[in-house]
């Protein structure tokens, strides 16, 4: 069984659709310190951004080459790698089962997992962890079990990429699990995490430290940049620059507001729908919403999203428990939100 829950390396590598983010952490005593980081970004094709290139669609050799380039350019020393598998390539859920011994659970879970995993179990790596007790008021004690399934071809691909990049793959981890570790640590408060990526937005509900519900919405930062480019008839590069400079500023000269509003409003709508679905099913209130991803650094994005959502919304700080060099104070907020998954991977315990 490939290990989805144990092992640790101090080089977190987040291979996304638009970027590869690498963060190197070292552990000193009980705390992590930031040693280095680097980013590779794929170039968008087409003058108006009509095509959508994806790193994950590149040959393994090219992905490995990009990783090696970042490591060399950033002077990263570690060769122990923990990588994340995107949430849209994985399956995870929490199920309830009668209390059994660990060995009995190990035999029973594959049979139970067939009800939830949408592809044949022979084609996935299945792992599980007991996360708590439930139903203690009934005569039959129950336990909550977090199960995760990853297609075997995905695990083989990441092993191949690591080998070609000259790295030791210590573990593969679900992207959402890395986010939870980086953003929440030991905080068990019911929380929604909205991770705005380049090609999609992941909406994750976390309770007692584990993923309870997730939803992928197929709009991300690239689609918003493309909308600006179309609306103003400018290049993607110009649209991206306008997005970063003006964002959602409420000023007369902001010529990109209308091009972004409907897409961001839909993000907020999908987030509210996912939260409400969980609250209704679980009878528990989600206390806060944390935003991560490069988009959240746009001017006034937080305030605009908060108004549309009507809930307590904050920018997640994935480096809140990490020591970093003094010269990074001005950039640490942007770094923490952009490299959130990579930070969580690098913090993984043995």
From TrEMBL:
<protein>
    <recommendedName>
        <fullName>SHS2 domain-containing protein</fullName>
    </recommendedName>
</protein>
<dbReference type="InterPro" id="IPR005883">
    <property type="entry name" value="PilM"/>
</dbReference>
<dbReference type="InterPro" id="IPR043129">
    <property type="entry name" value="ATPase_NBD"/>
</dbReference>
<dbReference type="Pfam" id="PF11104">
    <property type="entry name" value="PilM_2"/>
</dbReference>
<dbReference type="InterPro" id="IPR050696">
    <property type="entry name" value="FtsA/MreB"/>
</dbReference>
């Amino acid at each position: 069984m490939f290990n989805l829950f144990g092992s640790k390396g101090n080089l977190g590598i987040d291979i996304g659709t638009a970027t590869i983010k690498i963060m190197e952490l070292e552990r000193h005593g009980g705390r992590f310190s930031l040693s280095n980081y680097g980013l590779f970004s794929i170039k968008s094709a087409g003058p108006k951004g009509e095509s959508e290139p994806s790193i994950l669609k590149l040959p393994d050799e090219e992905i490995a080459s990009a990783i090696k380039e970042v490591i060399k350019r950033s002077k990263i020393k570690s060769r122990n790698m923990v990588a994340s598998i995107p949430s849209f390539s994985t399956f995870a859920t929490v199920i309830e089962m009668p209390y059994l011994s660990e060995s009995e659970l190990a035999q029973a879970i594959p049979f139970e997992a067939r009800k939830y995993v949408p592809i044949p179990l022979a084609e996935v790596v299945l792992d599980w962890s007991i996360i708590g007790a439930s139903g203690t008021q009934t005569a039959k004690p129950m336990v909550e079990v977090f199960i995760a399934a990853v297609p075997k071809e995905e695990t083989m691909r990441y092993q191949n990429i690591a080998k070609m990049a000259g790295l030791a793959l210590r573990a593969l981890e679900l992207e959402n699990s890395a986010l939870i570790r980086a953003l929440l640590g030991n905080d068990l408060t019911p929380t929604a995490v909205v991770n705005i990526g380049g090609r999609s937005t992941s909406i994750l509900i976390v309770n007692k430290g584990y993923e309870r519900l997730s939803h992928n919405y197929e709009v991300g930062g690239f689609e918003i940049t493309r909308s600006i480019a179309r609306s103003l008839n400018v290049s993607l590069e110009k649209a991206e620059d306008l997005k970063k400079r003006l964002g959602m500023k409420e000023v007369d000269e902001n010529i990109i507001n209308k091009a972004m509003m409907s897409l961001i409003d839909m993000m907020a709508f999908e987030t509210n729908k996912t939260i409400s679905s969980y609250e209704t099913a679980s009878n528990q209130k989600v206390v806060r919403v944390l935003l991560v991803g490069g988009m959240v650094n746009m001017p006034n994005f937080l305030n605009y999203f908060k108004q549309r959502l009507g809930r307590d919304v904050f920018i997640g700080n994935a480096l809140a428990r990490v020591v970093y060099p003094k010269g990074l104070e001005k950039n640490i907020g942007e770094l923490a939100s952009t490299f959130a998954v990579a930070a969580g991977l690098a913090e993984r315990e043995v």
